[in-house]
């Protein structure tokens, strides 16, 4: 799907990767619906999009609230008629050592990454079924392909989304709804600056946005990037698990655990 002259919903667009994707898609005569909780930041992104020639509807909403997410999809559909594509980008990966994390910490991570995605996914599928198809993409993570030290709950939540997307792809093929999972490596957004987690082969959010848009346009089912971190991840998945675990601990900070 060429992301030109399309109606595209981007969740988590007030900062970081989502913001960069919105700004990059602005100049292509696209109609964007952007969403996140912080209204002031969202309005600033909307101004940028309009200055670059795109149309933009900014809707502040908390994705943890199922009815608020459904209302964003409904408002977008009412305003623009239909939604052609969506990037479900909301997520957060607080660092937890599994020797210290409580059950509540782990569930919280699931809410911050899984619930915020499915609260948009379900109404979007219903909308696209009614309108003859569309494209739904997700900002997953290479951490969703492995049990990464200090990122266990985050890895598990992202893995849950990619498995769910696999089923969606199979079950909704006839409805012409396509699903794209993108798996960024380390991205230098403000959120992760100074979080203490080593970030080999880190790339800028602007480069990350370019990778995501390319994966959406090519409708790549699973798009891991950048290539160095993607290959490292592939290698770790091929190794026997105890060996892979020890190798990953090699990247852990000195005060780990
Ligand atoms: N940075 C990395 O190294 C990296 C690597 C791989 C994958 N990722 C993934 O990339 C995505 C974006 O991350 P980022 O690094 O760009 O961080 P970010 O700047 O914090 O972006 C997260 C976005 O989600 C929004 N958000 C968070 N919770 C929300 C909620 N409950 N309801 C509505 N909006 C919410 C935030 O806006 P508000 O606070 O205004 O709501 C913000 O716009 C995440 O899914 C993350 O897991 C990041």
Automatic annotation (TrEMBL):
Entry annotated with the keyword NADP? yes
The UniProt entry, under CDD domains, shows: SDR_c (cd05233)
In which domain of life is the source organism classified? Bacteria
GO molecular function list: oxidoreductase activity
Classification via SUPFAM superfamilies: NAD(P)-binding Rossmann-fold domains
Positions the record marks as coiled coil are none
* Keywords assigned: NADP, Oxidoreductase
Q: Does the keyword Amino-acid biosynthesis apply?
A: no
Report the transmembrane regions from the record. Answer: none
The record's annotation in Pfam families points to: adh_short (PF00106)
Q: Family per UniProt?
A: Belongs to the short-chain dehydrogenases/reductases (SDR) family.
Q: PANTHER family from the entry?
A: DEHYDROGENASE_REDUCTASE SDR FAMILY PROTEIN 7-LIKE, RETINOL DEHYDROGENASE-RELATED
The protein's name in its UniProt record? SDR family oxidoreductase
| Source organism per UniProt | Solimonas marina
Q: What is the lineage of its organism?
A: Bacteria, Pseudomonadati, Pseudomonadota, Gammaproteobacteria, Nevskiales
